[in-house]
Amino acid sequence: MQLHRFHGGLKLADNTEASTAEPVLTMGVPERLTVPLCQHIGDPTEPCVQVGDRVTKGQRIGQAAGYIAAHVHAPTSGVVEDIGHYPVPHPSGLSAPCVVIRTDGRDEWGDTRMEPWLDWDTRDSRRLRERIREAGVVGLGGAAFPTAVKLNPRAGQNIHTLIVNGAECEPWISADDMLMRTAPEAVFEGIRIVAHLLGVERILFAVEDSMPEAMRALTENTPAELADRLELVSIPAIYPTGGERQLIQVLTGREVPSGGLPADLGMVCHNPGTFRAICDAVIQGRPLVSRMVTVTGPGVHRPRNVNALIGTPFAELVAAAGGYDAEVDRLVMGGPMMGFAVHDDALPVIKGTNCLLATRPQDTPSPGPRMPCIRCGECAAVCPARLLPQQLYWQAKAKDFDAIQDYGLFDCIECGCCAHVCPSNIPLVQYYRYAKHEIWTREKERQKSDVARERYEFRQARLEREEREKAEKLAKKKAAVKNKEGQDDDKQAAIQAALERSRARKAARKGQADATDSSAGSTGEAPEADSPTPGDTGTGTEPAETGEPGRSEDTGQADTTNATDDSQEHGR
Amino acid sequence: MRFRTESSPHIIPRHSVGGVMQQVLLALIPGTLAMTWFFGWGVLINVALAVGFAVALEAAMVALRRRPVGPTLADNSAIVTGWLFALAIPPLAPFWVTLIGIAFAIVVAKHLYGGLGYNPFNPAMVGYVVVLVSFPREMALWPAPETLPQMPLGLWQSVQTVLTGSLPAGMEWDAITRATPLDALREGLVSGRTVSEVTASPVFGSFTETGWEWIGNFFLLGGLYLLFRRVIRWEIPLALILGVAIPAGFFWILDPDAHASPAFHVFSGAVILGAFFIATDPVSAATTKLGRILYGAGIGLLIYVIRTWGGYPDAVAFAVLLMNMVAPTLDHFTRPRIYGHSRGGGPPPGAGP
């Protein structure tokens, strides 16, 4: 098979000898599991159990609220101890809603367990997809995108090629390698299910040339049912070949359009771990409650791969890998290029945890002062998206968010190649993340202010219309009165007479009771004094009146939004 | 257990600015030694003086700007600037020429623009051009290329000459200096001789004057080392040399009597040094691949144009500074096609069923 090259990339030492030398360890059930409710990319998940509830293994504890979301299940049986905010592995270091389960050690499945489908090939695509969604399967390569969504191509997208991404995401990680070595049958079953679901003509299974043992295991275990359309491809281990877009380029020479998806090219790409999870979900009725994690790095004594329940604290995985080296000072979730350092090893394993990397001070860049960019262009030479990282850096620093998008900020896959080769040790990817975040925030604000502006303009128009109508009415009335005035003097005279009479009566009564008289007069006058107010508010004195208390509710609200809109305009 | 949280990547970076500059300095050694062999101790004295001035002024400027002095000096960039400047000026130029040139290079061209990474012009070339246009007499005194043992001036006498600006008693400038090959060619052509008559002199080797030729070879060696170590990339040196050689070849074929050969042009003056060490200064050069090719070719072409029709015998510094001005524009118009984008606005390569 003719392979292609992507631009740039790096040859990095994969450092997987140690972690692949040890057998995979299936970890026991810890005393307490902290299961974050949102472990995927997409909409948040709502808890569907209560504190004090007993849960069984595989029971749904988090309900996906939106379409792009995944359910969360109890990884073992126990009692829900708490539902609340706990620290989760996320680059922000913030806390997020979690369900804490005090385990009972029995690891019992309840009656909520999904029925095993040994006859899955008799089910149609929709039901298979529902099952995968039911099981909370997400992409296990690290991005954790809900798999069922990826398996649901839009109308008009004819998926003809399934790509199995057996290229490890980053150096040090060997979770996929070990999975392919130890459980090739499960991976192939998952592939069969997805191939059946999507009806693909061709399956490309890419394995890096640095994993000969995985390749051997796969070659020996390729099921006969797939033999006619599956191709095992050995690809050169150049970082980031494990990136979906780069892998597609290597295998097919085609580029996924900017802002598009592989499905636009008729391709779908999944990680071996995901196929195993699909196999478990469909054939065994087992939701995604555990995963393979590589625990490695010079900061642990015995690097290895473990099968850990979701929610297990990192510290237990490290203990399973022989514990920390005395000099360890950094714990990274993910690989060395794209992973993020966590502040605490009490954080739980989530669906996206493919690796824990522990390092010592001498293994990571010195925290010394950053040098200025010397425009050497090394970053551009290694960028797999063919961007000009140094230009993006200058633009991010200058907050020139129009130019930075023009230079392709959103085509950046944040692989970190640029930062690795930067002689000035500039954390380039940080700058791009900052710029992306800033642009998203501004976009949201812009949308908000657009809505506010629309509401404001609508209100202005309504007030003007009311004013106009009122003025017209008034004019009509006045005209009518004038006409009448001219027409009948006797009527006028009659009114005059009536007024005279009433005055005389008033004068007569005044002597009898002063107090009752004056109060009646003041109430009679009140409506006259009040009536012009609503009309006046619309006459262009908005800013001075914004947020004035005691106004009617709807106008007050419109004004407040208008005020935020205003302040944004000034801020720009 | 609690940890520090630093941003990715979490592996030791491949390069450092100081390391890159160190490689450049290493690559300058063979050419510098060759220059010393042919032009005497003055070369090394100049290098030492210029580097000393450059580092001292850099430290002073960094301190004035209230930046950390130690880490800034560790980037070695001032040493490179001083060294390159020293190679550009005549080996026996008086010390104040070096001081003034370096002051302009480090203080004006570098730090007044914001220091390393922010200078639009190559600092060494700014300093060189300042002294070239200000002190034409001192800048014209190139010794005749001899071998070191035959030098009229010993080490101590050279030091004295550089420090005092005058030769030891009993020696005349006219006796120890000679026109550079480019000067000789220029004067020869002006006085109506042909190129072959000028180069018929026994001091000329296969391409240009023997000494200059060897110096060029040794700088080439250093340049190839930088290419091999990937400190520089091939685009600028190759485009620059072709930028000189192609127009030179064209006119040479048209009229070999009035125009020197491409090899003469490439190996005379500072073309090799410029191609590998000066034009490749990343800060002031273009950064895209095509941009670098155009940048190098532009410098080469300007060198040939100024040498042939301009007022100066050599033109590397002027050509580099002129192209420094257009480098940002070149970068802007030579952006590579981004993954998943098309050049014209259609689908990217391989799109469609």
Automatic annotation (TrEMBL), chain A:
[4Fe-4S] cluster 1 binds at C373, C376, C379, C422. It is a peripheral membrane protein. Residues 363-393, 401-432 form the 4Fe-4S ferredoxin-type domain. One of its GO terms (cellular component) is plasma membrane. Binds 2 [4Fe-4S] clusters per subunit. Gene3D superfamilies: 3.30.70.20, NADH-ubiquinone oxidoreductase 51kDa subunit (3.40.50.11540). Its EC number is 7.-.-.-. The keyword RNA-binding does not apply. One of its GO terms (biological process) is electron transport chain. It is found in: Cell inner membrane. [4Fe-4S] cluster 2 binds at C383, C412, C415, C418. SUPFAM superfamilies: alpha-helical ferredoxin, Nqo1 FMN-binding domain-like. It comes from the Bacteria. GO terms for molecular function: 4 iron, 4 sulfur cluster binding; electron transfer activity; metal ion binding. Part of a membrane-bound complex that couples electron transfer with translocation of ions across the membrane. Belongs to the 4Fe4S bacterial-type ferredoxin family. RnfC subfamily. This is Ion-translocating oxidoreductase complex subunit C.
Automatic annotation (TrEMBL), chain B:
It is found in: Cell inner membrane. Keywords: Cell inner membrane, Cell membrane, Electron transport, Flavoprotein, FMN, Membrane, Phosphoprotein, Translocase, Transmembrane, Transmembrane helix, Transport. InterPro entries: NqrB/RnfD, RnfD_bac. Pfam families: NQR2_RnfD_RnfE. Its EC number is 7.-.-.-. Its main location: membrane. It is an enzyme of class 7 (translocase). GO terms for biological process: electron transport chain; transmembrane transport. The chain crosses the membrane at residues 45-64, 95-113, 211-228, 235-254, 260-280, 292-309. Belongs to the NqrB/RnfD family. HAMAP family: RsxD_RnfD. The complex is composed of six subunits: RnfA, RnfB, RnfC, RnfD, RnfE and RnfG. PANTHER family: ELECTRON TRANSPORT COMPLEX PROTEIN RNFD, ION-TRANSLOCATING OXIDOREDUCTASE COMPLEX SUBUNIT D. Part of a membrane-bound complex that couples electron transfer with translocation of ions across the membrane. This is Ion-translocating oxidoreductase complex subunit D. It comes from Thioalkalivibrio halophilus.
